[in-house]
Amino acid sequence: MNSWFPFNQGKSIGMKSPEGGILVRDEEHPLGARITLKEASDYVSISCCISGRIDHSRFFTKLSDAQGEFDVMKAELAKVAKVVASARASDIKGWEAIAAFVSKFQ
């Protein structure tokens, strides 16, 4: 089951980010995660966040590489969001899941 849906009903696609990139894909998960793919003239980036817990970016030289990684990262980010949502703020399991995600997607 795909729980991801377009952020802001897809209205953010084509908009310019504060860093200057154009949003190509922008999706959110009901457990508070968001993943965004941005393309600029000299780089492509994927930004992942879980509200109040993680803000992580990766950079690419080709859009095609980033597109493939977007889907892989989205699946893993959903798993992390589930762990974080079920953990208490002081529970180490949530932080371990975040650390593993960041380590995997450096």
Topology, element by element:
Elements: E1 5-6, E2 22-28, E3 33-39, E4 44-50, E5 54-60, H1 63-86, H2 92-104
Antiparallel strand pairs: 1-2, 2-3, 3-4, 4-5
Helix pairs in contact: 1-2
Verbal overview:
This protein is α+β, with helices and mostly antiparallel strands and 106 residues long. It has helices at residues 63-86, 92-104; strands at 5-6, 22-28, 33-39, 44-50, 54-60. The radius of gyration is 14 Å and the shape is globular.
**Structural category:** alpha+beta
What is the 3D shape? globular
What is the averaged pLDDT score? 93
- The order of strands across the largest sheet is 1-2-3-4-5
Distance between the termini: 27 Å
CATH architecture annotation name: 2-Layer Sandwich
Sheet bearing the most strands, described? 5 strands, antiparallel
CATH class: Alpha Beta
Count of separate structural domains: 1
How many E strands?
Answer: 5
Rg is 14 Å
- Helix content, binned percent: 25-40%
Beta-strand content estimate: 25-35%
The sequence of SSEs as H and E is EEEEEHH
According to CATH, the fold-level topology is: Viral Envelope Glycoprotein, domain 2
Summary of the model, kept short:
This protein has 106 residues and is α+β, with helices and mostly antiparallel strands.
Question: Which key terms come to mind for this protein?
Answer:
106 residues, Viral Envelope Glycoprotein, domain 2, five-stranded antiparallel beta sheet, alpha+beta, globular
